[in-house]
């Protein structure tokens, strides 16, 4: 009989321990704003029903969840990959038992619901990482990330969806939490633009110079068939008085005889529509108006030759700071400085993107989504283009924008691109060196 009672007491102690671990997964309460949230997204509240495993002996819990969804890019193009982060912080429910819960027993997963121009759900997952939870203490925050590919142009809404918390403490248990009145309120919106076909329009001149009043033959190709095209002289980024219109043939080609009178004309462009659009135009092609020299004089000329779009980097190895086994946290460092030189002198901007592999090491790997960056970009004085740094956030295997410049009438310059790096290392990652490869692409 004493033996029977002893075994019963042991079972009660075992179930009490399971109850404590499961309680972590039961949380469904109010949350505070996640650190570093962007102004584009907003916290939203919604009712959830969390169902603990039957073995825990805890009834379902209905409560208010506050969450926020953020993205790495809010203006993607169709075909681009968007990284989504679903964050839940400070659940309203607390650990209901007088038993402290250990660190790193919780692995969250969930869904982010898409609406508007594109529907569906994005699967998101979080790392197995949480601080210890004291008896009767509040539950910690957690974040989950995932990606989706934009398939349609327009406004795409993102709302928090169902989530599940898997706990690994004594037993492997799941606690699913569902949205009671789906969909939850919209937390983030991205506006996707259509895919723009490469601009293959081209211009060629029969001569590169001429006296004032001479007609130059301008040959255009690969414009829209049977469309009116404006052919006009350029003085830098401004149009000159030398202008005419012509209609393309059924192949999108034309031959215009443009009379060039303005001595300020230094190039010729052609475009569809009422005004210059780099997506619907071609040029400028250099042209010089030769002013007859007065007697006993000499004409001196100099040419500016278009260059290339290129980049160099200050090194190819980055050493992040170390973290302690059992503590984990952020291993930080800085991207080797990248210098972008845009010496093309045309209308096109550029984009510098990066993607990273998983970090392989003696304990397996640390996911690519655990690497985040904080980009910065500076234009050299006198550069025609302005440089925009990409958004701070995860880099991931899907990639993210580091920096870019917009299209314009005349673009170019020299730019310095940097970024702070932070790798989120789980607390009990096996000691050793973990390495991933960050690949940068300039286009």
Automatic annotation (TrEMBL):
Keyword Signal: yes
Keywords: Signal
Signal peptide feature range: 1-32
Protein's UniProt keywords contain Signal: yes
Protein name as catalogued: Beta-xylosidase
